[in-house]
Amino acid sequence: MGRAQKYVLLGDATYPLQDWILKPYQEDENLTQRQLQFNYRLKRAHSVIENAFLRLKARWQILLKCDDCSLELLPTLVLACCILHNVCEAHDNPFNEEWLEGTEPTELPKPCQPAPAAMEDGRAEQVRELMCQYFESCGEG
User: Fold this and answer.
1) Which GO molecular function annotation, any one, does this entry have (predicted)?
2) For the purposes of burial, counting CB atoms within 10 Å of the CB of 24, is it exposed (0-12), middle (13-18) or buried (19 or more)?
3) What is this structure's pTM?
4) How confident is the model at residue 136, as a pLDDT?
5) Which residue of 96, 99, 104, 118 is surrounded by the most CB atoms within 10 Å?
6) What is the pLDDT of residue 74?
7) Domain ranges for the chain
């Protein structure tokens, strides 16, 4: 799009729009087709992330019961599982679908109420608009 962008996190409507948190446009009847497509693509990306975490937790089920390790060890444990998981995925190590049986998709913690408009960053709308244009230029998918 002609402008370098930094990485962003995906959030839902309850998060404040920041230049580092991408959130969907507020759903109403005034959304343009482009904005609807942006929301759809964001939702699809979110589902990919949820599936990745589901596979990670299924492959390394120690992550389901991290309450039996010390808090100091927890970041190292999670990082080790992520690295080993990526190595397995990169080398096409078979994923046993039966592992999913003990792993339920969990709703990630998020704010209960939408963030106040005062927390929104006006510059962040430019980032969202650039992404919206990019998604439009990519076509369907």
Assistant:
1) nuclease activity
2) buried
3) 0.68
4) 83
5) 99
6) 84
7) 9-138
Q: Is 9 helix (H, G, I), strand (E, B) or coil?
A: strand
Euclidean distance between CA atoms 136 and 141, whole angstroms: 10
Residue that has been written with the tokens 């990745």 in this structure: 52
Higher pLDDT, 112 or 94: 94
| Tokens 């608009």 -> residue | 129
CA-CA distances (angstroms) from residue 80 to 4, 10, 35, 53?
31, 23, 38, 14
Q: Is the pLDDT of residue 141 over 90?
A: no
User: Helix, strand or coil for residue 18?
Assistant: strand
| DSSP strands (E only) in the chain | 9-10, 21-22
- Tens digits of residue pLDDT in 95-121: 888 888 867 655 556 666 667 666 778
Tell me if 131 sits within 8 A of 37, measured CB to CB: no
The tokens of 31 are what?
Answer: 């959304």
The whole-number pLDDT of residue 108 equals 53
